[in-house]
Amino acid sequence: CEDSTCFLTMKETDREAVATAVQRVAGMLQRPDQLDKVEQYRRREARKKASVEARLKAAIQSQLDGVRTGLSQLHNALNDVKDIQQSLADVSKDWRQSINTIESLKDVKDAVVQHSQLAAAVENLKNIFSVPEIVRETQDLIEQGALLQAHRKLMDLECSRDGLMYEQYRMDSGNTRDMTLIHGYFGSTQGLSDELAKQLWMVLQRSLVTVRRDPTLLVSVVRIIEREEKIDRRILDRKKQTGFVPPGRPKNWKEKMFTILERTVTTRIEGTQADTRESDKMWLVRHLEIIRKYVLDDLIVAKNLMVQCFPPHYEIFKNLLNMYHQALSTRMQELASEDLEANEIVSLLTWVLNTYTSTEMMRNMELAPEVDVGTLEPLLSPHVVSELLDTYMSTLTSNIIAWLRKALETDKKDWVKETEPEADQDGYYQTTLPAIVFQMFEQNLQVAAQISEDLKTKVLVLCLQQMNSFLSRYKDEAQLYKEEHLRNRQHPHCYVQYMIAIINNCQTFKESIVSLKRKYLKNEVEEGVSLSQPSMDGILDAIAKEGCSGLLEEVFLDLEQHLNELMTKKWLLGSNAVDIICVTVEDYFNDFAKIKKPYKKRMTAEAHRRVVVEYLRAVMQKRISFRSPEERKEGAEKMVREAEQLRFLFRKLASGFGEDVDGYCDTIVAVAEVIKLTDPSLLYLEVSTLVSKYPDIRDDHIGALLAVRGDASRDMKQTIMETLEQGPAQASPSYVPLFKDIVVPSLNVAKLLK
């Protein structure tokens, strides 16, 4: 079946070969001219066939040689296997014959083990007998501070003990009695080890001092620890093979060394607090400054000296830096958890957020480049910092409210003094209130700026908010001060001077607020915060306006008697009321010269307006009714003279302000022209002119004015009144009303027309 399959395969292969050949020949003989090259094609194909056959023969020959060599090697291997099998049979036969002989050598084996133990005992015999002496010598060396020599003897003792215990463990690991006997005989060894360790830890606790005074001692301690570390590693390696671990191992003195250093650092940080709040209000500032100095000095010593005493792989400076940082973080957390006052919170946050990372500490040039501040974690978490800031802002708010209240109470006490207030360098009266308030604000803002820009902005916003509330209280107190004085004008003695100081304080407050914002608001974001605060200019202007009004009230109370004389028979017969009014006003304004210019300017204009209004009120109150043209002329001319007298006075008072002060007095002149008019037929025209110039004049004012003239008939009055009512004049935007506040006595128009 296999032969037939092979035959068919070969036949198929021949067909494929013939087909391929036909295809190739057809490809070569596609044109008639190619027939001439048939012989050439035949020779080329013959050469190719010969080459292929040669390669095929070479390949078959190579395979045949390989098969021949393989058969030879298999034959040799078969012979070797037979020889090994025969040898194993011989060994098995010999082993069965020697079993009895091996059993008879058991005693020899036991003797060999015993000999090994005895050899170890003999080897350590000298040390065993000298253990008490070595213990005493080691103890003396420890007491003398010869730590290296003491450790060398301790190592000999431990080596003898460990060797004996290891041999016992190998011989009989379950024999605890002998183990206990050996351990007991070397019992002092563990005590010596502990005593030596105490000495090492004492040196390490004082390492920062020792490295400056006796660095050799510190190096000796480090060498001892390194020796113990090597022994620990060797014993742990042997434990993996034998399972035996000597007592007291591993000592892990390197790990304990870092634990001691960490505990020493913590104790050093905690021990820097020398005072309490009860004994010294600046206790925290002193505590933090001592910490700063100690930590900086210690790290500089560690960087420059201690690194020379420790192997590089100990990374002693890096580890000490982490220890100090962790100890500081723990201490700062403890301080933050205490019930700190506002100034103490500021001191703590300033130290944590600024001082610690400044050139005064961790950025100090002597610590570079080993200390990278950017890699240090924050001493206080953001949450704790936020809580401290919230507490600070809450406490600061209460403090500012209390400070402002106290400052205002102190200022109020000054208001009732018998002596005049102080004056500034320009001679303007003032009190100390603005200086006290803004000095307090400045101090708190400077403190906040030390912590962060964000806190500074928050404190400024707080100050402005509290200032707004404070000014409202200030306004109320100034109003009460004025009302109390009006109830008893003899008290306080220096009311005018202190009211002037209050008015000037308003200007000082405005200037100080602007200065504060300009100084502590640097960018557009903060400016936006500032603009969102309530404007205090309005409150300050209201306080100043009330103050000026109070002072003018004082003036007009003194003028009341003389103002009542105007437009009376006494006045017409030769009263000097206006002379007294001018002298009184000028005298008061000599005191008012101590008012700062913005408010003095407004006050002068208001005084001018009120004097004119009072003069016009005197006209409208119908205190006199002229009976003849001569009286009307005399009265009108007197009014004109007095108007000029008042004009001269207020020009003098307003000098330097650049204001037009003639308009008010012109009103008196215009009214006088109506009274002076001799031709009643022109009265309507004159009154119309008056109304057009002063649109706020009412019909009752016209009626009163006509009544003062005393010559207008009822029909004329009626005609004038009806005509004027038909077309009221429109006031210009710049017009200052004078007549709207003048009330005509309750004599109705109908009666005036009679």
Automatic annotation (TrEMBL):
Chief localisation class: other
InterPro entries, per the entry: EXOC3/Sec6, EXOC3/Sec6_C
Subcellular localization: Cell projection, Growth cone; Cytoplasm, Perinuclear region; Golgi apparatus; Midbody
Lineage, highest ranks first: Eukaryota, Metazoa, Chordata, Craniata, Vertebrata
Stated role: Component of the exocyst complex involved in the docking of exocytic vesicles with fusion sites on the plasma membrane.
Gene Ontology cellular component annotations, sorted alphabetically: exocyst; Golgi apparatus; growth cone; membrane; midbody; perinuclear region of cytoplasm
Name of the protein described by the UniProt record: Exocyst complex component 3
GN (gene name): EXOC3
Organism: Rhinopithecus roxellana (Golden snub-nosed monkey)
Pfam families: Sec6
Keywords tagged on the record: Acetylation, Cell projection, Cytoplasm, Exocytosis, Golgi apparatus, Protein transport, Transport
Gene Ontology biological process terms in this record: exocyst localization; exocytosis; protein transport
Subunit composition and interactions: The exocyst complex is composed of EXOC1, EXOC2, EXOC3, EXOC4, EXOC5, EXOC6, EXOC7 and EXOC8. Interacts with EXOC3L1. Interacts with BIRC6/bruce. Interacts with MYRIP. Interacts with SLC6A9.
Gene Ontology molecular function: SNARE binding
Similarity comment: Belongs to the SEC6 family.
